[in-house]
Structure formats: structure tokens, C-alpha cells
Amino acid sequence: MLLSWLPRLAQTSWLVPVAVVGVAALGVGAWILVGAVRARRNPNELERRRRIRIHVVGRMGEATVEQADENTLHYSYQIAGVSYSTSQDIGQLEAHLPAQAHLLIGNALIKYHPQNPANSILICEHWSGLLAGRHSIKRGEASI
To answer: Cα dist. 103→15, 20, 45, 100 in Å?
Structure first.
């Protein structure tokens, strides 16, 4: 009963291709709309989401922080016999870092994505693997 109109629809040869094209156009339009919304996201927000995702699903490993400045940490680590050397932008995480970046150089813990070990973090909003400089004065805190 509900689909009783289907055999009559098949008899009209021009209507079926038009319906198929219409459904395809709606699908492509929805795909473009979703892509446009995602493209509008702020790069800082995308990086924050990446850090949180790795924090939630990541595995832990050992790393060595080789260089540190106010906006970037350069570090290296080894997972399953493969060596990685990378950096993390820490510009948005100033409140979680010591006032002097050079205190961060040394051993640390990382979290990395299990399917992509090259995707790793040393610190995020909810976790820190930085061992050096842990008890030093944080940026923005008063030193008395």
C-alpha cells in the first residue's frame, strides 16, 4: 500500500532519472555544506581538538625535549623501533607552562595516537607529560 505508486513511477521513463539526479544533487549539496562548515573552524580550535583527542585515546611513551622556546617544544621519541622527531605548538598553553621555557628541556612523557604514532603531544589542557620545570613558577603567577 505504501509503495503502490512505485510501479506507476517506473512507467514514466523521464521521472526516474530526474529523481536520481535530484537525490544525487542533494547529497552533493549536503557534502559541500558540511565541508564549508568544517573549513570555517579556527585553526586554533582544530589543534585544541587534536590535543584532546590524543589525550583521550593516546598511549604513553617516553620522550626527550631537545629545545624549548615560548611557542614551541621540539622533542624526539621512539615507538616500536621507529624514531620520531617533531614539535608541538604551545602558544595556547601558556598558563600550564613555567615562566622560563628552558626549564622544560629534558625527559618527558608523551601521548601518541595508537594508529599514527607520529601524531603525539607533550601537553594539553588536561594533561602534561613535562617532567622538567614541574615545580617552577607558572607564567602569570606572582613570585614573592
So the answer is: 71, 63, 27, 6
Grid coordinates given for 24: 544525487
How far apart CA 24 and CA 13 sit, in angstroms, is 18
The fold for domain 44-121 equals OB fold (Dihydrolipoamide Acetyltransferase, E2P) (2.40.50)
Of 134, 125, 116, give the one whose Cα is nearest residue 65: 134
C-alpha grid cell, residue 8:
506507476
C-alpha cell at 53: 583527542
Which pLDDT tens digit goes with each residue over 42-57?
Answer: 888 889 999 999 999 9
Across 18-127, where does the E strand assignment appear?
A: 59-68, 72-79, 82-89, 106-113, 116-121
DSSP 8-state code for residue 3: T
pTM of the model: 0.66
114: left (phi over 0), alpha (psi -120 to 50) or beta: alpha
Sign of the alpha-carbon dihedral angle for 27, 33, 39, 42: negative
Domain boundaries, the chain: 6-39, 44-121
Give the residue from 27, 143, 140, 40 showing the smallest Cα distance to 94: 140
